[in-house]
Design brief:
104 residues; four-stranded antiparallel β-sheet; 33% strand; alpha+beta
Length: 104
C-alpha cells in the first residue's frame, strides 16, 4: 500500500494494490464536516445514504455511546463520526475524527 499526501494536507489518497484509490479525509477538514452536516443532518439514514456512505467512506464501526436511542458510528475512510437517532433513523450530527460518547 502506498500513501500519497497531496497539496491539500487534509486529504490523503490511499492507493490500493488493485489500482483503485480511496480518499481519506483528515480531522483537519472542517469544510468537509460542514458540508456533511448541511447536506445530511435531518435526513434519515436509509438504504440509499447507507450504501453511498459505505461505498465512499468504508464500513462504519459502532462506537461507545450507542444505546437504545442513538447510534454513534465511525466511518474510517471519511475519518468522521456520525450520530443518528434510532427511532426515526434521522442523522443528527457529523464530527471530524473518531468521537465515542460517554455511556448515557
Amino acid at each position: 500500500m502506498i500513501i500519497i499526501v497531496g497539496i491539500i494536507s487534509s486529504i490523503i489518497e490511499d492507493h490500493n494494490n488493485n489500482g483503485s484509490t480511496n480518499t481519506i479525509y483528515n480531522e483537519g477538514q472542517p469544510q468537509f464536516i460542514k458540508d456533511l452536516n448541511s447536506r445530511y443532518v435531518g435526513e434519515p439514514y436509509d438504504i440509499n445514504i447507507g450504501e453511498l456512505f459505505i461505498n465512499k467512506y468504508g464500513y462504519p464501526e459502532t462506537l461507545n455511546g450507542t444505546n437504545n436511542y442513538i447510534w454513534v458510528a465511525y466511518f474510517p475512510l471519511g475519518n468522521f463520526t456520525m450520530t443518528q437517532t434510532k427511532g426515526d433513523y434521522k442523522i443528527t450530527k457529523f464530527e471530524a475524527g473518531k468521537k465515542p460518547r460517554g455511556i448515557d
